Amino acid sequence: MKRRQFLGLLGAAGITATLGTEAQAATGHSFDGYPNAKGVLFDSTRCIGCRKCEAACNKVNKLPAPAKPFDDLKVLDTERRTDEKTYTVVNKYVGKKGPAFRKVQCNHCQEPACASVCFVKAFTKNPDGSVTYDASLCVGCRYCMVACPFNIPAYEYNDPITPRIMKCTMCHDQITKGELSAPGCVGACPKEALLYGKRKDLIEVARERIRRNPERYQDHIYGEKEMGGTNWLYVSGAEFKDIGLREDLGTTSVPTMTAGPLSVVPMVAALWPALLGGVWAMNKRKEKVAAEEQKAAVKAAKAEVKAEAAAKLAKELEKAEKDKAQAIEREVKRALEEAAAAKKDEEGA
Amino acid sequence: MTTETNKSLMTPANIITGIFLAIGLVITVLRFTKGLGYVTNLDQNNPWGVWISFDLLCGVALAAGGYTTSSACYIFGMKKYHSAVRPAILTAFLGYALVVFALHYDVGRPYRLVYPLFVSPGTTSLLFEVGLCVFLYVTVLAIEFSPAMFEWLGMKNLRNKIHKLTLALTVFGVVLSTLHQSSLGALYIAAPSKIHPLWYSPYLAVLFFISSIPAGLSMVIFEGTLAHKPWHHMMDKTHLDEHEGVILGFARGASIALAAYFCVKIVAVGYDNNWHYLATGWGAWWLVEVLGFVALPSLLYAIGSREKNIKLIKWTAALTVFGIILNRFNVSIVAFNYTLPSSQRYFPSLMEIGVSIFVVTVGVTAYRFIVSRMPIFFEHPDYKDAH
User: Fold this and answer.
1) Among A141, A189, A232, B12, which residue's Cβ finds the most Cβ atoms within 10 Å?
2) From CA A121, how far away is CA A109, in angstroms rounded?
3) Could you tell me the fold of the domain covering B10-378?
């Protein structure tokens, strides 16, 4: 859970800050699974396709009876997957070296995609290694089915109001209650193709088998690293891709992949308001400056017009003054001339 | 103002609306009595179908006109687009309301849709992020839209109080939109082995966010074109005068956004060195999407805005909208589960498509009801020059 919590904190830093816990981004913390987590090792070279595990699973989990009985081995002729009534199936793959069988069920990832993408935390990675599901929280969005790289979770499509996700629980409840000591399928296997134990020990066992019989096995433990590692492990004689296990999944877990986009979320929330507010303020300022400049320009223009008008007026006034002076002068002159003329007349008379 | 009620209700548009609504109601009953298995082609390998691809992914992307238009007007200071804000906010609000409505069909227990928010928040999930943002953004859009309703109802006080929040709401809206538009893409980052490498990318979040911008701008143009004829009489002088400017400006914006989106698309392929896939059938399909529905509309928008060719711009808007829908379908259906044999691939059932058409019809009907009554295309005489 530590890994998931860490990612959750990373993703919702704003929310979790109020809860008084710390994001552990800077500590370089990594999660390698619960130390005592259990798992199951499936050995394809030992599996004979008897479907006893399917029958046992059906029984211990009280699942509905199948359409065809479990001893009908013709069922193996078509490749199947888990569904809402079946937690596990065995598939037959016909290869060069004869048929090979592979059991399909939840791989109980160390960092489960289903749990990390569930938006109501309906999945739990338990310390015993199992991944379990709580129907009382499920909304039925089916994102777990989208994210599961192994196509395991199944949905009750025909239940209109209370559909559940159905998948293998590694018999978590039965083992916790003491009803079983190992998952139902493991106990039912007549060929010891399934081995239940601590994951750490299972990896040792698997290595030992490969070391002792290198010609019998592929030199790879499927699930040791795939998608961050799974608690269900596989060894096989045939190539894994030939028994329906994709070899191109990589070793990065889904929560690690989604950590990047999740980490951006609080940053957007933190920075966008300042950025957008800044753009708004800049535009506001630009508008204000423009308005001020306009005002100043208008004022200047007005002053100029006013000055021009004043100058023109002064000029006119001056001209008028001049005219007036000239007129007076003229009048005086004429009056003088008239007076002189009158004087002349007087003298003449 | 209620011109519609004066005429007979038996118009062709109303009859088609009635048929779609009736079909939708029948399927609704079937969905909630017989389950998803009865009405959909979904199965254990294909848990998400057309209700997610179209109703959710396309619905949200095409409702991006709300945040793009309001931020252009109120944050980036392009006041000449003011008359485009209300129609865009209305469409966004209806779009998001319908996304939430449609999700009630898709999720198994719709009565628990509040669980992620209030009962058991799964904060490591990008879907939680989407849910939280969509919930908040629907609320923001409802508030942003409410002044139009209050003006219509004559509730001046409330209208004026909310009007003062415009800037804060716009900023909050852009934050939320950035987050959930991108997170819708990031949802698929959790399925690296199921989506074809040409469509899967660690940049899915960026791709979805950037493409939502031209999607939103194109929807504003597209919708404006559709609304112009039937509601011409409802549009005031400002709206009609600004209409061409909005189209030209948005075309320029969409052209640039599409060019940016094109670059991110190329970078996404280059980042994982997936060039060799271009020589396959998948590559041909990718090129159709990226050249035909990203590069081409970018170019056509540029030409259209340069030559003031309104007709070309309108057709380009339709092309862009179609391209965004194509992209969302490619990521979520066409390239999803590409490794499975064709017999195990998903194709929607008629009833699934029926529900999607029903949802769109509900939206169009609500839109028609609102724009025929409320001040969407015109400014209410009491509040002229109030902004």
Assistant:
1) A141
2) 16
3) Formate dehydrogenase/DMSO reductase fold (1.20.1630)
